[in-house]
């Protein structure tokens, strides 16, 4: 729960009153009231306004805004303002400016322009935040804190280089251990002095091809990525601690970047230091619903199932794509409820009033340039605001329960794509998404888990492309499977350790005994090349021959059963899908990238064998464009049904009467779901599960 004093799902968004004359502010308050807005994120980009020079701090304008919010029954999500430093700071202290991978020092401009290891940035950011916390610690409008904004730029300056050396000393202790981890005897790179270590940039380790991720020493680049994520986390913690020193019970967060799978920061490592996780997400009209669903589930998984905040979305239109169409009627509401269904305890926008100039003047807002309530977008926002008010606190802190865990690991993501592997077309998140969709299409709820997660809660654990096996994780998986769990992994797994050093003795390295196989070769296929998976035995719907591609491995069973074989090429007839009985459970390995239909049918078989089903009924056959998810709270289960299609769908919920929360009606039997509509059914947990879907 975001705040135990707040009685409903938060509704609001970013508000920049400093960009407008004060005589507009009262009109904003009136319009916010009409729209049901109850929280405004303020002061996100106001450092230069709050600190016009080195010695002066001016918060008068912010006092007025905070007071006006309170007087109008609204709360503030107070930004720390450190997302863009003032121009005078860049002029006087150039160490604050970032350096690109090719060695160019940026000048003042845009945002995300501060170096995380700049002494100037850290000093002035902490002073500013302490002044804010001291000033507003007792303000009745203050509900939570928003540190910086969409953190994560990488910097390659001298300060970062020196800080990297210190980080490495703490990690390895000795140069001998560092040289071993980085395999520096390759190309004669052995280090004998810490000062000889430079950042793995385009100036040092960059390879041809224009991809700064591809370097000659992947272990070094992997450590730089870890260091950069840790550097920004240290900056966040500096502000976090400054707030907590004045307000120990403050709720502090930052908004995770873009679309939830943001490569530069290890969100699992950050999550313990956020009082609640917050996400900004900006899908396009044609973005599949499963894309957003994955990112919401990932945000929920960062804190082991705790609700998160939907901090930013657009109510209508984007402004930075090549073409920026509007959200069609009903889509904003539908996608907002998708986030709520998957664990969000807030619905917030960027932005509440459209800017009049600069980069984001055409970005969507609740209040358009017209400046009044007589627009389609405002009406839709007001209708949603009324519904969220009607729902009250019924859904707050409700949890999603899953029997499937999908492993997501930032270290593994970085290592898979650092270069030197079999194919540049191999993208870690794409394969996570592909396996996720196989569950999504079957309306089966999943959790995203990390290497420290207790696996005993799950009937099935899936780890696509588990290239990196961290210390102790193979043993953890073995215990899980021995105790009856089912484990699934794929090609290019068990290859390397946490330093991106290949595990000797043959792939899949430490997973070899669990999987009961060893891999002799990895054959990379061009995008237009295909092979075949030929089933040796029927597994439910899974039978016959299926297409596969990207990678094909030459696998030798060492106790594992061959379930499918390759259909062509020199490894025709060799195992492509294996199952290894291990203790009371089983471990599956697919040695290629199979078609989506294969994945759907395979996942369906595995879930059926483990008793994992849709939350509606054991054999629900809802169409894929209807989304089903459940949240649990106290004695109630809340079933969200979202019809993403353009057709009316029919849902039979059986004879047990349930309350549909948005209409306020009691329903049973057949229920029509209108196009682009949402229904939330409430029932007591002891009630009999009922119903099935039909088109």
Automatic annotation (TrEMBL):
Substrates-to-products reaction catalysed: Hydrolysis of terminal non-reducing beta-D-galactose residues in beta-D-galactosides
UniProt KW Hydrolase keyword: yes
Stretches assigned to the Beta-galactosidase C-terminal domain: 625-682
Keywords noted in UniProt: Glycosidase, Hydrolase
Assigned EC number: 3.2.1.23
Pfam families: Glyco_hydro_42 (PF02449), Glyco_hydro_42C (PF08533), Glyco_hydro_42M (PF08532)
Enzymatic class: hydrolase
Span of domain Glycoside hydrolase family 42 N-terminal: 14-391
Domain Beta-galactosidase trimerisation intervals: 403-612
PANTHER family named among the record's database cross-references: BETA-GALACTOSIDASE GANA
Protein family: Belongs to the glycosyl hydrolase 42 family.
Protein name: Beta-galactosidase
